[in-house]
Amino acid sequence: MAGRLYIEALAPGQWLADVRVDAELIASPNLAPRNWLSLLRHQNGEVHLGRAFWGFTPSWLEVLDHAMHCARAESLEERAMFREALATRRCLVPVSGVYIWKSLPRGKQPFLVTRTDRAPFLLAGLWCRYFSDIHTAFDSMALITTTVDMPLTPLTDRFPVVIDAARAHAWLDPATPPASARELLAPAAPALLGAFPVERLVNNPANQQWHCARPTGHMMTATHGAVRAE
């Protein structure tokens, strides 16, 4: 799944060209669901960087803790709220890494998944707008997850969809038909991502020190075997 995000303070041009900044990037070494994050979306034919609550909140949702922070790519059409968002409200979340956890005899070991070249990347998401009254509205979103290939298969069975920067505009553009957008929801290429164990400090979302992401072992990639984490 996608329990936490690692987001470095990078300029928009480092993930995508020609982005209009409506709100500065929210950087965090350990960003948990049900917090605000930065996202990219199409507005008036341009890509804008704005903010949304991480937890999909349709108008009928009564309990905020029930807001879904992830949506399964395989079943988006089965729920009206995601089917409608897939048609016209697609977004991207710029990140530097995603934390995942592997169960071990001594407890869960956190890993940070990054690009093998440590460049930032873009995660696919859907957003919606909730009106609390006729004058007040806020936006929320959910990441889209899919199955995984190596090197992540020893660690997790699902991971957020990574959208290549070259396909970002096609994903974001509401004019792209849902069927064409769906074709982009595939597991990341095995050579793209790697994972390394990090400090268990990250297990507590209250810990916001940047050394949460400090490697405690070597990166595992598609050409290297699993890392042993004590």
Automatic annotation (TrEMBL):
Key words, A-Z: Covalent protein-DNA linkage, DNA damage, DNA-binding, Hydrolase, Lyase, Protease
EC number: 3.4.-.-
EC class name: hydrolase
Entry-linked InterPro entries: SRAP, SRAP-like
Gene3D superfamilies attached to this UniProt entry: SOS response associated peptidase-like
Source organism, top-level taxon: Bacteria
Family membership noted in the UniProt record: Belongs to the SOS response-associated peptidase family.
PANTHER family: ABASIC SITE PROCESSING PROTEIN HMCES, DC12-RELATED
Identification of the protein by name: Abasic site processing protein
Source species: Kushneria aurantia
